[in-house]
Amino acid sequence: MGLELKPSKTRITHTLNVTKGKPGFDFLGFSIRQYPVGKTKSGKDCQGRLQGFKTYIKPSKIAIQKQVNKLREVIDCRKHSDQETLIKALNPIIVGWSNYYAHVMSAQTFKKLDNIVYMMLRGWAVYRHAKQNKHWIMGKYWRIDDGQGWVFQPHNSKWRLCRHAKTPIRRHVKVRGSRSPYDGDWLYWSKRLGRHPEVSARVAKLLKNQQGKCQECGLYFRDREKIEVDHIIPKSIGGKDAFYNLQLLHRHCHDKKTTRDTG
Ligand SMILES: [Zn+2]
């Protein structure tokens, strides 16, 4: 394809064994390497044989440090702002970063970051009330007794600090090795991406919702089968042309339902 590697950014490394330097590599803020593991956790090769190791992807150390620096900077230059202003500045940074890393092994990193944020905010709060006792300060800025633990939130305000660790981790599902977006199996790709050049957005969304199955017979749609959009409550008796009233059916299943609907 005419791509070339930049020598200064290129190095050869082992992803499992320690050779020269640390195993694995960093890429786009992710740290990628393999770890030896036992039978139950071992990855498998394409023929199902145990490999004895597993590939783990985590946020890279440099990326974590960058996030800490950014949070510190925001807190430092708001030494005299009110709590709500500080929360509004921090939340997008926390949510954005967490979403970027929500598809890899980030749970531990998220917890660690929340602890660091807490320490920094404690410093922020204590600095503002040098003469007050700690207990009073904590009670002013953290909702402790509301049953949700330590929540950084002003009294009488709906603004509360988001947490990295509140982000659900949803593992990325790998594209099957034998697949290509050009292989013509639009069913697989519509379900996966929710879109395919030859499938309308509406059908793709329905396919994804229905997990690729017909709502009438419960069987999977197969490639080249005729799929039709059906109004769950027929339009003739007031059913709307809205998404919630639509479903995908096999053509023959659709015929069956229409017969039933028209009595
Ligand atoms: Zn069917």
DSSP strand content = 5-15%
Number of helices: 7
Q: Identify low-pLDDT runs.
A: none
Mean pLDDT level: 87
Spatial ordering of strands, largest sheet: 1-2-3
Terminal CA distance reads: 60 Å
Largest sheet: 3 strands, antiparallel
Morphology: flat
What is the rounded Rg? 26 Å
Describe this structure in words.
The chain is of the alpha+beta class and 263 residues long. Among the domains are: 79-166, no CATH class; 186-261, DNA Binding (I), subunit A. Helices cover 35% and strands 12% of the residues. It contains 7 helices and 7 strands, in the order βββααααββααββα. It has helices at 61-76, 83-100, 107-128, 134-141, 186-193, 201-209, 251-261; strands at residues 25-27, 30-36, 53-59, 142-143, 151-152, 227-231, 246-250. The protein has a 3-stranded antiparallel sheet. It has a two-stranded antiparallel ribbon with strand order 4-5. A two-stranded antiparallel sheet has the order 6-7. Strand 4 and strand 5 form a beta hairpin. Helix 1 (61-76) packs parallel to helix 3 and helix 5 crosses helix 6 (201-209). The chain is flat and about 80 Å long. It starts with 24 loop residues before the first strand and ends with a helix.
